[in-house]
Design brief:
With 430 residues, the protein is mostly helical. The protein is built from 17 helices and four strands. It has two domains: 181 residues, SecY subunit domain (Preprotein translocase SecY subunit, Orthogonal Bundle); 222 residues, Orthogonal Bundle (Preprotein translocase SecY subunit). The two termini are 38 Å apart.
């Protein structure tokens, strides 16, 4: 099967940018003792925070030039996305092309501010570790801040280049590539555990089966959707033209919020442990122990937070009022439901019924890998959030590739004149 030249060019461009990103993610910042930093993080209560950052494409635990990854950009994007749900001006801008361009520019500015603040905070943290900085002081902190901020801006630019000139969403692909890069080392580590009899063959097989089951279930739930039937009536367009009535549907995904509730919950639940690593308070250490992954209190609190964030984030990104209004403008309607407010209420009811199963699934996917790893004695690098990100991004990228191929195939038919109309006549353009 031949590959369309334009598609091939886009794919090669995307791969080239991803390789540049991964090279930068392995270049350590000068003046940092990476081994001392890694040893401290590994044995501190802040390991969960750095693990979350690294999962999202960063490299704080390795102090690389791309250490911040795209986390500042994600944070800035979330700020404006959430603001759109509560600030009418921003909500109006999100619906307009020029407004979206302005929000994109504001997101870039906020990314720079967040990058600079996070970089300086990380410089202070690194300086507090004995032997981690060769020449501690204000000059060292400023150099690290400038280097990490520049790296974050460059990563943001790389993601935008993929989105504009490559295939798929650039930011999402950068995260996915970072996650997939750890699959091979993780597999070698598991093989080494089995070979050294640290882990039994049975435990390794069970672990792999659980991983396959998680991937399969996430794939099924990611594409699962409730289809709400709609009808668009027959309409006279003018000059004798008639638009025939159409039957279609509105797909509402079961995992509308996707991975964001897990990331929100994980960001909050690791705060006590991270704060405890910066203080000698016995009370803080006791609180941090309460949030140790694998315990019953941790599981209950984590699950409740994921469920609450699922409802919250779904209500922010899914606007049933706008959907009902747009449907009404097109003359469409849901059979048996009045257009307008009644349609919005109906959609909200459907969304509410499918959000709870989705939220429970997200909580299960987030907790199962943790408990399985602990029970089997395997220090796994995979997490439910990672699987959700990878599966969602890969499915989206495959869909975009297929859309590109279909568009090129349609253009080819039109140029070759193979599309025939009634009586073999070609269309007449006016």
């Amino acid at each position: 099967m031949s590959i369309d030249p334009e598609l091939k060019k886009k794919l090669l461009f995307t791969l080239a940018v991803l390789l540049i990103y991964r090279v930068g993610a392995h270049i350590a910042a000068p003046g940092v003792n990476v081994q001392a930093l890694a040893d401290f993080i590994r044995n501190s209560a802040a390991a969960g925070f750095f693990g979350l950052y690294d999962m999202l494409g960063g490299g704080l635990s390795r102090a690389t030039v791309f250490a911040l990854g795209i986390m500042p950009y994600i944070s800035a994007s979330i700020v404006f996305q959430l603001a759109g749900g509560v600030v009418p001006t921003i909500s109006k801008m999100q619906k307009d092309e020029e407004g979206r361009k302005k929000i994109t520019q504001w997101t870039r500015y906020l990314t720079v501010i967040l990058s600079a603040s996070q970089a300086y905070t990380f410089a202070l943290f690194t300086e507090s570790i004995p032997g981690a900085i060769q020449a501690p002081g204000l000059g060292s902190r400023i150099v690290m801040m400038l280097m990490l901020t520049t790296g974050a801006i460059f990563v943001m630019w790389l993601g935008e280049q993929i989105t504009e000139h490559g295939i798929g969403n650039g930011m999402s692909l950068l995260i996915t590539f970072s996650i997939l890069e750890r699959v091979w080392p993780g597999g070698l580590q598991l093989f080494g555990f089995v070979r050294g009899q640290v882990v039994s063959i049975t435990a390794a097989v069970v672990f792999l089966l659980v991983l396959v089951a998680v991937v399969a279930s996430v794939t099924a739930m990611t594409i699962a959707a409730r289809r709400i039937p709609i009808q668009i009536p027959r309409k006279v367009m003018g000059r004798g033209r008639v638009r025939e009535g159409q039957k279609s549907f509105i797909p509402i995904r079961l995992l509308t919020a996707n991975v964001m509730p897990i990331i929100f919950a994980q960001t909050i639940i690791i705060v006590p442990g991270t704060a405890a690593s910066f203080t000698n308070s016995e009370i803080m250490r006791e609180v941090a122990n309460f949030f140790v992954p694998g315990g019953i209190p941790y599981a209950i609190l984590f699950s409740v937070m994921i469920i609450l964030f699922t409802y919250f984030y779904t209500s922010i990104i899914f606007n049933s009022v706008d959907l009902a209004e747009n449907l009404k403008k097109q003359g469409g309607f849901i059979p048996g439901v009045k257009p307008g407010a009644a349609t919005a209420d109906y959609i909200d009811g459907v969304l509410g019924r499918i959000t709870l199963p989705g939220a429970l699934f997200l909580a299960a996917i987030a907790l199962i890998p943790i408990f399985v790893s602990q029970r089997l004695g395997i220090q796994a690098q995979f997490a439910g959030a990672s699987v959700l990100i990878v599966v969602g991004v890969l499915l989206d990228t495959i869909e975009k590739i297929e859309q590109h191929r279909q568009l090129r195939r349609y253009d080819g038919f039109m140029r070759s004149g193979k599309v025939r109309f009634r009586g073999g006549r070609q269309p007449r353009y006016i």
